[in-house]
């Protein structure tokens, strides 16, 4: 089996697979190392995935570049949303935006994560210059010219660059002793799929209340949405232990005026929410991308988009370096990638912290500030358009 590659990617999730597929278009040999990557080889078209992402314009263009956008659309499960609505429960703060008001076709796309992973996996498996290793990486070391990655079966892979795309608890990041700034959001996310009484009408809804945030991401079926309910850990534990009818009753109390009665379509999953920011995105012959480099609160749906933007810029950087006959693994040659992606991730982390802190609790002064602030933005079209354009990368 081939053991020498240009790039070895640890992690075969959405961002890792996308990076491999994008690199392979440039005749770059790639290894993917992940014991769970084969989970994506099948897709149950009769089921709806529990997790979905709001894909912005930049990610959509990246999917087109990679070559999976046509296949995603052909599944008839890609749903564009044309409107966003944000409200404060028992408050006066609100913000809404419709694509047509700004001359846009839409504001983004809601796509099931497992559908994206399925099409990326199919492409990777069919591409000659991508090799998939269903193994665990257990060690790595470096020389001036190469990186070496040892797998659990004692296979040693040689590459010019190792990419860490192995998630929030990245083995590679920990093994390299890269320190991480962490901030606990003191929220857990309860994620599931719901069928709502009222059709979603291609509107992504978000409702703030003193203990958390409820978000509905409109799926390809008119009355089905991905639900992301972030709340305090104790409350999240209660919500997951409730019967389905009691859970839906609690949801109705918060969002019933917007969506009507709800029924659960999928089981409930719970994820602790924590902000993370690696103090280095690069080292000698190493680059971190996606959740291995940063994680943010899901309230704006930007986490996976940040990861795809990491991937796209790193791929473009590698391609440029190869064209210029420069070493793709030297820190000096990757500094521009690190500078740009650290800056963008830091901006988003700061924005998420500010929004969550502002909407946390029922303080009277906070309520006044968010009411005045959100309503001012809602009524001042130029600022609102710039915020929408930035968030959705239209």
Automatic annotation (TrEMBL):
Residues covered by the FAD-binding domain: 5-327
Any GO BP annotation: ubiquinone biosynthetic process
Stored InterPro entries: FAD-bd, FAD/NAD-bd_sf, Ubi_Hdrlase_CS, UbiH/COQ6, UbiH/COQ6_monooxygenase
Gene Ontology CC terms: ubiquinone biosynthesis complex
Alphabetical keyword list: FAD, Flavoprotein, Monooxygenase, Oxidoreductase
Co-factor(s): FAD
Cited Pfam families: FAD_binding_3 (PF01494)
Record-level Gene Ontology MF annotations: 2-polyprenylphenol 6-hydroxylase activity; FAD binding
Annotated pathway: Cofactor biosynthesis; ubiquinone biosynthesis
Gene3D superfamilies linked: FAD/NAD(P)-binding domain
Quaternary assembly: Component of the Ubi complex metabolon, which regroups five ubiquinone biosynthesis proteins (UbiE, UbiF, UbiG, UbiH and UbiI) and two accessory factors (UbiK and the lipid-binding protein UbiJ).
Family stated for the protein in its record: Belongs to the UbiH/COQ6 family.
Listed name of the protein: FAD-dependent 2-octaprenylphenol hydroxylase
């Amino acid at each position: 089996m081939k053991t020498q590659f240009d790039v070895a990617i640890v992690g075969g999730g959405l961002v890792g697979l996308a990076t491999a597929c994008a690199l392979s278009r440039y005749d770059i040999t790639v290894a993917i190392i992940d014991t769970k990557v084969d989970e994506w080889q099948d897709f149950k078209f009769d089921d709806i995935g529990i997790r979905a992402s709001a894909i912005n314009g930049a990610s959509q263009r990246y999917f087109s570049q990679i070559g999976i956008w046509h296949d995603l659309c052909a599944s008839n499960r890609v749903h564009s949303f044309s409107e966003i609505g944000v409200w404060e429960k028992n408050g006066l703060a609100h913000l809404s935006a419709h694509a047509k008001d700004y001359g846009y076709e839409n504001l983004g796309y809601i796509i099931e994560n497992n559908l994206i992973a399925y099409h990326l996996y199919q492409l990777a498996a069919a591409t000659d210059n991508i090799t998939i290793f269903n193994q665990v990486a257990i060690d790595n070391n470096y020389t001036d010219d190469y990186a070496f990655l040892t797998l659990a079966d004692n296979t040693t892979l040689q590459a010019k660059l190792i990419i860490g795309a192995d998630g929030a608890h990245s083995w590679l990041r920990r093994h390299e002793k890269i320190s991480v700034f962490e901030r606990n959001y003191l929220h857990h996310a309860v994620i599931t799929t719901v069928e709502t009484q009222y059709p979603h009408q291609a509107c992504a809804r978000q409702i703030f209340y003193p203990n958390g945030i409820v978000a509905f991401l409109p799926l390809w079926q008119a009355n089905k949405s991905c639900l992301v309910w972030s709340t305090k850990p104790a409350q999240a534990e209660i919500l997951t232990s409730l019967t389905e009818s009691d859970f839906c009753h609690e949801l109705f109390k918060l969002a019933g005026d917007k969506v009507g009665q709800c029924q659960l379509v999928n089981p409930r999953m719970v994820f602790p929410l924590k902000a993370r920011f690696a103090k280095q995105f690069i080292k000698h012959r190493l680059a971190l991308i996606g959740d291995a480099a940063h994680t943010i609160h899901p309230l704006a749906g930007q986490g996976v988009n940040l990861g795809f933007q990491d991937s796209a810029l790193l791929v473009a950087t590698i391609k440029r370096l190869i064209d210029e006959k420069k070493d793709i693994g030297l820190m000096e040659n990757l500094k521009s990638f690190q500078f740009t992606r650290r800056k963008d991730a830091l901006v988003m982390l700061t924005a998420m912290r500010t929004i969550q802190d502002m909407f946390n609790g029922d303080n009277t002064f906070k309520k006044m500030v968010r009411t005045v602030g959100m309503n001012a933005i809602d009524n001042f079209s130029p600022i609102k358009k710039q915020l929408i354009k930035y968030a959705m990368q239209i």
